[in-house]
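JOB MANIFEST
job_type = single_chain_structure
chain_count = 1
residues = 224
[input]
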Amino acid sequence: MSTQENAAEDPVRRAVSALVTVFENLGAEHQALKAEEAETTALERRGTVSRMGEGIAATARMVSLAVGTLATLHGLRALGVDQQYAKDVEGGHYSPLLSLDSSTETLHDAFEYLDDAVRALERAYAPTRKYPRLAVARRPGHMRTVLSGLRAALDAACADLAAHDPEAAEDYARAGTVLTELEKRVCAATVPAQSGPSAEEVVAAIRSRPEVARAAAAALKTGT
C-alpha cells in the first residue's frame, strides 16, 4: 500500500496533514496583524489588534502541540506501545513503576490542544464594544484554510476516537460548529479604515510630551 493510501485510511495521518496546513496558513494572518498593529495610532484600537495577534500566536502553539502529540500517538501504535506495565516476579502488573504511555490518553491530550486552539481563535476574533468591526480576518483566504483545516483535523481525530469512546468523540466534534460559525463571521467582512485619534488620546499625547503641549498652547494663542 502506498504512503498516500495509508494517509487516506489512517485518521491520525489525515489529522496531522490537515494541521500542518493550518499551521502554515496562520503565518499570513499573524504577519498582517503585526503590520497593522505597527501602523495603528489609536491606542485602544492598537491594543485590540495586538490581542488578536496574540490569539493567532496562541493558536499556532496549540496546533504545534497537537501535531507533536498525534505524531507520538502514531509512533506508539506503530511500535505496539500501549500502557504496558512492569511485571512482578509472578508476571503480574508491578504498579510502583507505573506504566508506559497510553495511546488513548495521548489521543485525548491531542484533543485538549485542538480545543485550546479553537478557543484561542474564538478569543482572537471576539468583537469588542468599541471596535466590533475589527473582529474579522485580515487574510480571509488563509483563514478559511485554517478554519476548514481545523475542522478536518477534528473530524479525522473524532473518527479515530469513535472506535474507542463514541460519546467523547461526539463531545469533541461540537467544536466543529464553532469553527463553522467563525468562518462565516470573520472571513466575510472587511477591516474598517482607521479614523483619527480620539479627543482623549489627543489630550494624553499632549500631556505626555511637553514640547507638544507648548506647541498646542502657542497655536491656541495664535488662533485667538
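[summary]
Residues 1-5 have pLDDT under 50 and may be disordered.
The CA atoms of residues 66 and 110 lie 5 Å apart.
exit_status = 0
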